[in-house]
Design a protein that fits this description.
575 residues, alpha+beta, eight-stranded antiparallel β-sheet, five-stranded mixed β-sheet, 15 helices, 28 strands, binds uridine-diphosphate-N-acetylgalactosamine, binds manganese (II) ion, glycosyltransferase
């Protein structure tokens, strides 16, 4: 039984943590007779005709030369938690910041350790095609920990059918550590499939991936982070999806290599990658209702609104047809959103493949420096993605704490012409289509509030007629009384916005422009304040006020008790 370690998985406890990555712990050892069961070796499998059926399908090869490991007593073997000896606690603490995980333990764990085969039982019956495309595995890294990098590479070498693994490309994004130079060259020289690409200057993850992809010869590109462990049978199910349809982008289930004790931890089933505003990636478990209604099996590929970013297989030519990554994205972050929207909106699909599993060390901090400020880099990347892909929904993104990104004096997000042209050329669908068809659970109202703007003092509603504002008897059927309070905090009717005229203590109407601060209003506790004055100390806060005759609208010093300064909209979508 080549998947003997499967049974060890029973010992994995799963602790559900709602929408975040679900972690557990490998606690007990598997029974020895299972661990010692012999595994099918690569050559036997490839020569064997019995595993290949005539109809062009075969069972996934359970290749795992590490299932019967060299040193069964080594720390971390079988994916169990390793322990730091008391005498070494200081050293292990000191070395933490080399990778922001337990580097000391990583160095003591075999680079080819066995890990529990965490695939759902059903995967054993799944068939994949005989004629699968080959893949280039691309690892980009900067200052990766030696033992972790090696373990990543060995897990690919040991657990991938050799005829499908064209090459492993190690893209060194200008690391500063000496061991990643000659020592790495010498070590990898033993493995003809491994090629090292050295970047002469720091490209950042995104452009490093592009550099790796440009060198790749395989039919499919498989991107992996440089601190992972591929599990048994991980590759074929991914390549099979791309083979079935080259527009499918396949992601393995990302499991957890515990940063403290290096144990391999299985994650919950039925998890999809999603995002919340402002484009924050997260995991979400499919509801049991949805699973039942759609009759989804635990081994079925799951349609996934966005990918985590690090681990996926994509047809090489298709990757370029999609324009690869926006090369204007800097260093790290947001590229998973970009490629996800691009794939879905331009005719592709992203799937999570439960029969393919890869462990990843999730870390609290990045163990490398950002050439520029980290937060600013990621924000800028996200703003590029929002501008190119989100259509009118981009206001929701800006409205969740990113209004400052609209100020062109504060931030230059660079030229977007090529990205916008690409979207046209590929005839990609709208973001509205994406929300309706791919991610209907997303809460995406286009305004914070809308409808009539009712004034409590006059009991009348705001009217926009012939370019000026006045009041009328409230009437929902009149379009001239329909306004919205947008995510970027403008008071708007179609493309006309209410602007604050501070000198005149009045208001005017002008064409909406999200970059203009004097078009922004803070609507809270029923008041509507001119927002750009709030930070200015020499101004009293000014509020929208209705004239007591119910005709004019003016700006007056805010007065908590005046009903003429109290307003509300018919509908509120968010506060
Ligand atoms: C996640 C993704 C990661 C990437 C990132 C957002 C997973 C498991 N990981 O963050 O792949 O999509 O979100 O951008 O989905 N690196 C370089 N050059 C750099 C910076 C990083 O080569 O300038 C390498 C780094 O060594 C690592 C990989 O890029 O192998 C990803 O970086 P990370 O592990 O720090 O990102 P992670 O997992 O927090
Ligand atoms: Mn990572």
């Amino acid at each position: 039984e080549p998947d003997a370690l499967k049974h060890a998985v029973q010992t994995i406890q799963i602790i559900n943590k709602g929408e975040s990555v679900v972690r557990g712990n490998v606690t007990a050892k598997p029974p020895q007779h299972l661990v010692n069961a012999s595994s099918i070796q690569t050559r036997e499998l490839l020569n064997s005709t019995s595993v290949r059926k005539k109809d062009g399908l075969h069972k996934v090869m359970n290749l795992d030369v590490t299932i019967k490991p060299r040193d069964t007593d080594a720390p971390g073997q079988f994916g169990w938690a390793a322990e730091v000896p008391l005498d070494d606690l200081e050293e292990s603490k000191r070395r933490w910041s080399e990778g922001y995980f337990n580097v000391f333990l990583s160095d003591r764990i075999p680079v080819d350790r066995a890990i529990p085969d965490t695939r759902p039982q059903e995967c054993m019956q799944n068939l994949v095609h005989d004629e699968l495309p080959t893949t280039s595995v691309i690892f980009c890294f900067v200052d990766e920990v030696w033992s972790t990098l090696l373990r990543s590479v060995h897990s690919v070498l040991n657990r991938s059918p050799p005829h499908l693994l064209k090459e492993i490309l190690l893209v060194d994004d200008c690391s500063t550590k000496d061991y990643l130079k000659e020592k790495l060259d010498a070590y990898m020289a033993q493995y003809p499939k491994v090629r090292i690409i050295r970047l002469k200057e720091r490209h950042g993850l995104i452009r490093a991936r592009l550099a790796g992809a440009a060198e790749a010869k395989g039919d499919v590109l498989t991107f992996l982070d440089s601190h992972i462990e591929c599990n048994v049978g991980w590759l074929e199910p991914l390549l099979d999806r791309v083979h079935i349809d080259r527009r499918k982008v396949a992601c393995p289930v990302i499991e957890v290599i515990n940063d403290k004790d290096m144990s391999y931890v299985m994650v919950d089933n039925f998890q999809r990658g999603i995002f919340k505003w402002p484009l924050v990636f997260g995991w979400s478990t499919l509801s049991t209702d949805y699973i039942r209604k759609n009759n989804i099996k635990v081994s079925d590929p799951l349609r996934c609104p966005v990918m985590a970013g690090g681990l996926f297989s994509i047809d090489r030519k298709y990757f370029y047809e999609l324009g690869a990554y926006d090369p204007g994205l800097d260093v790290w972050g947001g590229e998973n959103m970009e490629i996800s929207f691009k794939i879905w909106m331009c005719g592709g699909e992203i799937e999570i493949i439960p029969c393919s599993r890869v462990g990843h060390i999730f870390r609290g901090e990045n163990p490398y420096a950002f050439p520029k400020d980290r937060q600013k880099t990621v924000e800028r990347n996200l703003a590029r993605v929002a501008e190119v892909w989100l259509d009118e929904h981009k206001e929701i993104f800006y409205g969740h704490g990113y209004l400052h990104l609209l100020d062109k004096n504060l931030i230059d997000i660079g030229n977007l012409t090529e990205q916008i042209q690409l979207r046209k050329k590929l005839q990609c669908k709208s973001f509205k289509w994406y929300v309706e068809n791919v991610y209907p659970e997303l809460e995406a109202p286009l305004a914070k509030a809308e409808g009539l703007v009712f004034n409590v003092g006059t009991r009348k509603c705001l009217v926009q007629e012939k370019g000026s504002l006045s009041f009328g008897i409230c009437d929902l059927s009149k379009q001239s009384q329909h306004f919205s309070y947008s995510w970027v905090r403008t008071l708007r009717q179609n493309n006309t916005c209410v602007s604050a005229q501070v000198a005149e203590r009045g208001v005017a109407l002008e064409a909406c422009d999200n970059t203009k601060p004097h078009l922004r209003w803070l609507h809270k506790s029923n008041k509507i304040l001119a927002e750009h004055l709030i930070a200015e100390t020499h101004f009293q806060h000014l509020c929208l006020e209705a004239g007591s005759e119910g005709d004019i609208v003016s700006l007056k010093p805010c007065d908590g008790s005046s009903p003429y300064q109290k307003w509300h909209f018919t509908h509120y979508f968010a506060q």
